[in-house]
From TrEMBL:
Tree of life domain: Bacteria
Gene3D superfamilies: RraB-like
SUPFAM superfamilies: Hypothetical protein VC0424
Lineage: Bacteria, Pseudomonadati, Pseudomonadota, Alphaproteobacteria, Hyphomicrobiales
Protein's name in the database: Regulator of ribonuclease activity B domain-containing protein
Domain Regulator of ribonuclease activity B: start-end pairs: 8-98
InterPro entries tied to this protein: RraB-like_sf (IPR036701), RraB_dom (IPR009671)
Amino acid sequence: MVENNFPNDENGAVLNRMQGEGHNLSAPRDIDFSIVFPNEDSAQFFAAQINQHFDKVVYLETETARALKWEVTATRYMVPTHQDIAKTEELLASIAAPLIPTVIDQNSCAHLRRPIDMMFHGRSCSVFQA
């Protein structure tokens, strides 16, 4: 069994699972980072703000009963390291924070779809969840 040094958090758990399944975590891959917004204007503005930092940025309306229904997905080709994923999530969260109403949901993480979740569920490379 391979020993790892992943932090004990959600991203660490997914990286640990990927490693346990035999994924080569030193190989770069597309990783999707998604954030949902309350309206198209916010999603479009956010997409324009982050476009220079990612290989691909798209936004679309999602089918949901929630108030946050415009999803922006930014794809970055990178090695899936815990530190780089966390830095990218922090960048996105800092840019998105002023655009997302805080009273929409009691769960502060509900607006941010973590890239590691998308990766794990086959959305981009081989793995990422909402």
